[in-house]
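Model: You mentioned two targets. I'll fold them one after the other.
Researcher: Yes, keep them separate.
Model: Target one:
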Amino acid sequence: MARIKGVDVPNNKRIEIALTYIYGIGRSLSNKILTDAKIDKNKKAGDLNNDELGQIRDEVNKYLTEGDLRREVSMNIKTKMEINSYEGTRHKRGLPVRGQRTSRNARTRKGKAVTIANKKK
């Protein structure tokens, strides 16, 4: 298995798909990385030689991925919580952040059921 950014990418998949196993890399960024590295996107990850893997690693290092990206996202959430923005208060309460309805399907977010509305019987 090839290791890129501390992630084992699967050998039996095309390199275009295998790169998406790295947090922060989707299909479009994967294609961009492979075109910049001049590697065929239909090649299997297990068929790559060390030179090609080195080129891919160099290209991936140009982007914010894995631990650095996770840290940045969590810091952004913490900042919103500290300044008491609307999104931050929703994060604190464990409610949907992006405008979804809460009267129905918001029960599954972040574990145990949370009473959302004061319904009188």
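Model: Target two:
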Amino acid sequence: MTVDRKAFRSLTYGLYIVTAQSGDMRAGCVVNTFAQVTSSPAQASIAINKENVTTSVILESGMFEVAVLSQDAPMDLIGRFGFHTSAETDKFVDTTVALDDEGMPYVAEHAVAHFLVKVKETLDLGTHVLIVGEVAQAETLQAGEPMTYAYYHQVKGGKTSPKASSFEGPDDGRAAESNAEPAVFSEESASSSAPARTFAWRCTVCGHVEYVDELPDDFRCPICGVGKELFERIEL
């Protein structure tokens, strides 16, 4: 029997920012694996990479927060939590944060809802750990459409972090997106600061687009921090 990894692309996901705090340490990351598993009692689960700082903070605190991102969530917010490590970056700086009933921080901007989950069980999945918990608090934050993982890729032009559960390999999601119409980048190209050009440079990690003729040798992506060598030239 064979496993066609492309078949996994037919599964649907959302896009969420998971946060937790233990003592003075706050951490957070982007996941697409948050899911309700039972309704009575209300329980939910996440699969999260063992190497993430957020994972250790969740296990230490025994609880975590989940912000359901809206379609208008900007790439810099997603990049801040999705492509940096909490060990080196305070991801909560320049982010609107609120506290739940347990004092756990959650991202309160560009989010349609948040959930506080108290850990009940964990399951070792090799590279990841499955965390199942009871929902202790849930609240709608604003009206709007939740962002799906497909919307993040197809409309936002986003990329999959290598630590994500759905990561397929070095060319994850890039083949299809490299042939996408320029409308994929309508959010950036609509900006008054973007000059009319026939080409631009796209980060192959997070999808950020720079509208310049050439990238300086010391250029770093403002979203995920990678260097010039991981940018590709695209036609507009």
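Researcher: Noted. Anything on target two?
Model: The two ends are 42 Å apart (CA to CA).
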